[in-house]
User: Fold this.
Amino acid sequence: ELLRIARELDILSYAGGRLHFPVVTTAAGLEAILAAKQKGLQVTCGTTVHHLCWTDEDLNGFNSAMKLSPPLRSKDDRFALREAVLNGVVDLVVSDHRPRTPEEHDVDFIVVKPGVAGIHAVGPALLGALTDHGATIDEALTALHGVLVTGPRKVYAASEAEMGLVEGQPAEFTVFSTNETRIPKSASRAPNTLCTPDTAHMLGQVVGVVTTRGSHWN
Assistant:
């Protein structure tokens, strides 16, 4: 990962422009990107909610639900990723939603296709990961808003009307509770999203209302 990041940063330094790394998973990669930002290069980066929650130790026993690409990293890497989310080095967090069926996972670990469901719990899992790291609920919520709302919009150059609540424009917002918990049950999900890492210990919020593009869900 570091070799590829360093190569692309060298090209950016020479040619100029903007560069975004969709998924960074190592402390060394983050250090290289932070150094580039401090030099004034227009570089941004993201990571996945999975890499903020789990480590390579969760692969003990060859748990196929934890086989990802890029693979899970060390505790030190996860620590660095969480710090980078809280201090703004990481610009956005993605769900890396690549669901697999139980049948796809019921084979030898070495031939299992990497990928698990993620979009159903990205908010709660991210909040849980940051508070587990020691962040206060306010610090975690501020970071969550940055990497799930404003960060992606800035990285992908959203228009001013898409950057927040604007009078006369369709509203997009989510209402949730930090005082309730909900453990997702596999039976409530579509068959192709049954295989997912255990997020029960990370979930710390319940989404109550979602409004986007004029549509409303409870």
Summary: The longest strand covers residues 42-48. Strands lie at 18-21, 42-48, 92-94, 173-177, 206-212, 215-217. The chain has one domain: 2-217.
